[in-house]
Amino acid sequence: MAAPTRLISRLTLVTGGGSGIGRAVCQRLASEGASVVVADINQESANETLSSLPDDFRGQVHTATVVDVSSKDSVKKLVTNIQTRYFQPPSVCVNTAGITQDDFLLSMEEEQFDRVIQVNLKGSFLVTQAVTQALVACGAPKGSIITVGSIVGKVGNLGQANYAASKAGVQGLTLTAAKELSRFGIRCNCVLPGFITTPMTDKVPEKVISKITTLVPLGRMGEPAEVADACAFLASDDSRYITGASIEVTGGDLLQFIFPADVVFIKG
Ligand code: NAP
Fold it and tell me: Residues lining ligand 1, CB < 6 A?
């Protein structure tokens, strides 16, 4: 079956596009015809993603750029530069930039809590606000904002008080943005991945991964491309009547999980 071409002539921005899920999203959006701006805190990894992107459609132009999503100045500069280069703001934005800094609640430092909130939650706010402000200002008829939460934001996880709080916040931010922005034709939806094989989960000890895998109803970790599939659907007009939704990409209902005390999502 030929790949769908639902995103021809759409300009898309993917934060955290240099790695893992973000890279897979860039590749999927590009394969469906979109022009992709790969934005990451690491220029080198953004460039690597850029060099992997197909550009088989007329007018398809991809770029790679640096952004720190936790900095308002950096995000503003990103959106301004995109508008200068492409003469329009991105009509699709996928917020995948994210970090973990795991520790038990009893020993977590304030800095660990603050940094994870700054990147995951405030970063999603700053990028969503800057992109939608630009879309509203130019009178764009439609937009699709996709945030990446986590199933951990719904069910919690040992060692991830900061991360779970940030991801629950991302979901609340998305629900509110959906309500406020629907009158401008902008849809906002959240993807909640479960346990996906990426550099982020490479940090998790093998014995923990194998325990998690036995708890997943579909019996395996997810692949970044499987999260990208959901993002491409939400980016496209196939989801035109969907806003304020959260789509779980988890391999099954992780709410059933009862994590034993030794299944800890932290290093070591
Ligand atoms: P990843 O491979 O570590 O990719 C995250 C990317 O974001 C990296 O390239 C990272 O750069 C970049 N980044 C970090 N801080 C940034 C900042 N301040 N500004 C811009 N970019 C920044 O992780 P992933 O697993 O693909 O995760 C992608 C998203 O999915 C994250 O939001 C994560 O929380 C979420 N998620 C992942 C899983 C999973 O199982 N993998 C599950 C649920 C949700 P550096 O590498 O240089 O830090």
Answer: 15-16, 18-22, 40-42, 45, 67-70, 96-99, 119, 123, 148, 150, 193, 195-196, 198-201
The whole domain housing 68 covers: 11-249
Instruction: Name residues whose C-beta falls within 8 Å of residue 148's C-beta, 6 or more positions apart in sequence.
Output: 16, 21, 94, 95, 96, 98, 170, 190, 191, 193, 227
Can you give the CATH number for the domain in which 44 is found? Answer: 3.40.50.720
> Considering the domain boundaries, does residue 225 fall inside one?
yes
Residues 72-93: tens digit of each pLDDT:
999 999 999 999 999 999 999 9
Residue with tokens 């300009």: 11
Kindly state whether residue 74 falls inside one of the protein's structural domains.
yes
Q: How many domains does the chain have?
A: 1
pLDDT digits 0-9 by tens, 244-267 = 999 999 999 765 555 544 445 554
Taking only the tens place, the pLDDT of each residue in 25-60 is 999 999 999 999 999 999 999 999 999 999 999 999
- CA 138 to centroid of ligand 1, rounded, Å: 30
Distance separating alpha carbons of residues 264 and 157, to the nearest angstrom: 7
Bridge-based pairing state of the strands 92-95 and 63-66 = unpaired
The whole-model pTM stands at 0.96
**202 in a domain, yes or no?**
yes
Q: 144 lies in a domain?
A: yes
